[in-house]
Amino acid sequence: MLKNKTVVITGAAKGIGRATALRFAKEGSNIVLNYRSSVPDELIKEIEANGVKCLAVKADIGSFEDAGILINSAFNEFKSIDVLVNNAGITKDNIILRMSEEDFDSVIQTNLKGTFNTIKHAAKIMLKQKSGSIINLSSVVGLCGNTGQLNYAASKAGVIGITRSIAKELASRSITCNAIAPGFIQTEMTNVLSDKLKDEILAGIPLKRFGQSDEVAELAVFLAKNKYITGQVIAIDGGMSMA
Ligand code: NAP
């Protein structure tokens, strides 16, 4: 079902994005792998070992122009954009009294504006195709809020707003848009947290373990295959956000 489809994944050099790129490649999809700083050659080789093509595009998705270059490069190479996974994201944590305006703005710029930027460029291609699947990485923090993460929470709650609005706007052309809201997934983003904080988080996870990038990647593939789920926010968090 995803064989020979074009899948664009932002921030895919590591973490959840990397796992997602590899998982879609296993389905036979051609991968457009966006990165900001660098991408290891081995990752591109590992993706292509599935018999698919991989186009690596350097772009800062917080830049409207760069996002356009990413989407247009993908379309020029593969002549379609079937799945867009807005995965790139950053954190710059601090409590309100210590959070700088720059740290607020840069998190919003990457996580929220970046999601707008890629969708804005990809939507016209998907509208012409009359098909497509957009998957946005939100977070349980966007649903519940979190001490020391007001910028991140605002960006990820905003991503949910974009997701539901785009789902409504594009549904008539058979384009779906959903959000994934992970809890604590073991990646470089979460590895920087102190052991004390990790223990506190673990205590609040009913399934009593952290999640893995592969588990999120599996959900992204599921959402890309399903044509009747749209406008939803799927938490993948070991039960962390249960009321
Ligand atoms: P990660 O390991 O820190 O990887 C993030 C990736 O995004 C990196 O490859 C990074 O590239 C890239 N990136 C950052 N800013 C970018 C930009 N402006 N343009 C292009 N690429 C950019 O993070 P992760 O844990 O895999 O998280 C992936 C997504 O899931 C994020 O949106 C995150 O908010 C969300 N999420 C993660 C968790 C979790 O527990 N890990 C929980 C909830 C939600 P560079 O290395 O070059 O900067």
Give structural notes.
The protein is built from nine helices and seven strands, in the order βαβαβαβαβααβαααβ. α4 (101-129) packs parallel to α6. The longest helix has 29 residues, at 101-129. With 243 residues, the chain is an alpha/beta fold. A seven-stranded parallel sheet has the order 3-2-1-4-5-6-7, sandwiched between helices. Bound molecules: NADP nicotinamide-adenine-dinucleotide phosphate (NAP). Residues 10-11, 13-17, 34-37, 60-62, 87-90, 110, 114, 137, 139, 182, 184-185, 187-190 line the site of NADP nicotinamide-adenine-dinucleotide phosphate (NAP).
Spatial separation of the terminal alpha carbons: 35 Å
Basic shape: globular
Low-confidence stretches: none
* Proportion of strand residues: 15-25%
Following the backbone from N to C, one meets helices and strands in this order, namely EHEHEHEHEHHEHHHE
Query: What portion of residues is helical?
Result: 40-55%
List keywords for this structure.
globular, alpha/beta, single chain, binds NADP nicotinamide-adenine-dinucleotide phosphate, Rossmann fold, 9 helices, 243 residues
How would you summarize what this structure contains?
With 243 residues, the protein is α/β, with parallel strands linked by helices. Helices cover 48% and strands 15% of the residues.
Please give the structural blueprint.
Blueprint: E1 6-9, H1 15-26, E2 30-35, H2 41-48, E3 54-58, H3 64-78, E4 83-86, H4 101-129, E5 132-137, H5 140-144, H6 150-170, E6 175-182, H7 188-191, H8 195-203, H9 213-225, E7 233-236
Parallel strand pairs: 1-2, 1-4, 2-3, 4-5, 5-6, 6-7
Bound molecules: NADP nicotinamide-adenine-dinucleotide phosphate.
